[in-house]
Every structure is written in structure tokens, then in C-alpha cells.
Amino acid sequence: MTWNLSEATSQTGRIAIVTGANIGLGYDTALALAAKGCKVVLACRSPDKAAAARERIQALHPTAQLECMALDLGSLASVCAFAASFTQTHRKLDLLINNAGVMMPPYSVSEDGFESQMAANYLGHFALTGLLLPLLSATARSRVVSLSSLAHNWGNIRFDDPHFKNGYNKRAAYGQSKLACLMFAYELDRRLREAGIGTLSVAAHPGVAVTNLAQHFPRFLTLFFPLVGQSAASGALPTLYAALGSDIDGGDYCGPRSLGQMRGDPVKVGSNRASRDQEAAGRLWTLSEQLTGVRFLS
């Protein structure tokens, strides 16, 4: 059964954090949430781009409640500073949308020594979720939505070399980061249930959405995307379904309905065997705690 944004009830009185909200899927997610009355924190690396996104949203929805906060997911120091600031100024958190990401860039490492895609797409969000969990767990009906990708099928978790120090493959590195996001969503759901915490952990993917993520792709491929893919606004719908759908349960995974999950209306979808390997998910959780220094639900 597909879902339509019109089915979502008013979000007045609720607060959401959307990482990477200045462009692409994050912007369209923030726009839709703001239109529903939710107060949205635009958590972005660039304060100027966040402010510009806020102006665009308010031009469409003058009464929208929007707040810009600096967050660089490739920096654990920035993640910790963001979480500390948010916790000091807010008493609850209804929705944490772990959206921001990078896709197949040239090789680089973060200031913490992590491969850039693993850092920004996964490890930064792992740490952010852990640091904000006290607020989430204290908020009724709260949800964490982790963004994965069809690319979770591209590989596995390289436990022996997660940062590709022994030869970089940008496609494999992106696939690893998005597989990690999905494994995290499932493992977080299991651990929340075991701890008796009512927060839901859900995952989503946009299919093939035409966004800035493709900036590192060859031009001929980017010209092909519109033929099989969909707009950023449509690509954001699985995220919004995961965040707002009344029939969503912890551990659900949402994506497009048609063409191999590349485009179409949002529905609940399945994922590969590797993403549901609980032993590997436990190993990944332990590794993530060791790398980030953020421990929770252990």
C-alpha cells in the first residue's frame, strides 16, 4: 500500500532536526515538515546555505518555524558541539532525520581520520543519534529516520579496513557507508526495544533521485538519471513516510514502489541479507562506539 503526504496529520508543536537540509532531499524533507507545522532545525555544514534555505522555505510558508544550526558530520567535535547546544536550548526532539551525505567523492579523510563517506554518511550520524538519545527517549512518539540507498547492495562492511587505507574504491566506500546506515537503523530498533524505549528507528531510501549527490559522477551518467529516476521532492517522500506514516513500525524500511525501487510512490520495502546480519550489526555497533567515543544502548 502506497502513502501520500496528504495523509500526514498536523505536526504543530513537534520539533525535527534534518541534517543536510539546505539542498536536495534534505531541503524537500524540511520544506514538507515545515508545511505541516513542524518546527524544523536546519542542521547544515554551511550557515550561509542554511540561512538561504530558510529564506526559500519561509517565502513559501511565511509562518514556518525554522532554526539554523551549524553541523559538520565529518567532524566529531562539531557533532558534539551541535548536540550540546541543541540539548541546552530544547526540551524535546520528535524527529531526527539523518539525511546528510556525500556520494563517491575523490579519496579524503576527515579530521578524525575516517574515510570521508563513512564519516559524513554514517559515523557522524551514529554519534549524533547517541548524543541526542536522552531527548528522543523522553519525547513521546519520537522517531529516528536513517537514510540508506540502493547502493547498500554494492558491498559489505570492511571490518579490517573500514577507511580504505589499502586502496580506495569510491563506489565500494559509498556502498559500505549506506549499508552501515541501514544496519544501524535495524540494530538501533532492536536495542531500543530491548531497553523498553518507545522511540522508533526507521530507515528510508530515495530510489534514484536527481540531486546534488551526483556531482562526482561522469556527466553521461547524470544525463541518464532523469530517465529512470525522480525529482528530489519525490525522492524525499519515503523519508517523510518513515517520519510521519501512521502505520510505521520500528525496523521498517521505506522506498519507492516501481522500477526496482528506483522511482514511484513510497511504500515499505525489503533489503538484502547483509543488511539484516545481526552478528555483523553488533560488530559494527562496537566498532562505531570505538571510533566515535560515543557509547549508548550497550
Q: In summary, what is this structure?
A:
With 298 residues, this protein is α/β, with parallel strands linked by helices. It is built from nine helices and eight strands.
CATH superfamily membership: NAD(P)-binding Rossmann-like Domain
Estimated radius of gyration: 17 Å
Main sheet: which strands, in order across?
3-2-1-4-5-6-7-8
CATH topology annotation: Rossmann fold
Round the mean pLDDT to the nearest integer and report it. 94
Biggest beta-sheet profile: 8 strands, mixed
Number of strands: 8
Order of helix and strand elements from N to C terminus: EHEHEHEHEHEHHHEEH
Give the low-confidence spans.
Answer: none
Query: What does the overall shape look like?
Result: globular
| Class of secondary structure makeup | alpha/beta
Helicity, as a percent range: 40-55%
Report on the architecture of this protein.
An eight-stranded mixed β-sheet has the order 3-2-1-4-5-6-7-8, with helices on both faces. It is globular and about 50 Å long. The relative contact order is 0.15. It is built from nine helices and eight strands. The chain starts with 14 loop residues before the first strand and ends in a 6-residue tail after the last helix. With 298 residues, it is of the alpha/beta class. It has one domain (5-292): 3-Layer(aba) Sandwich (Rossmann fold), CATH 3.40.50.
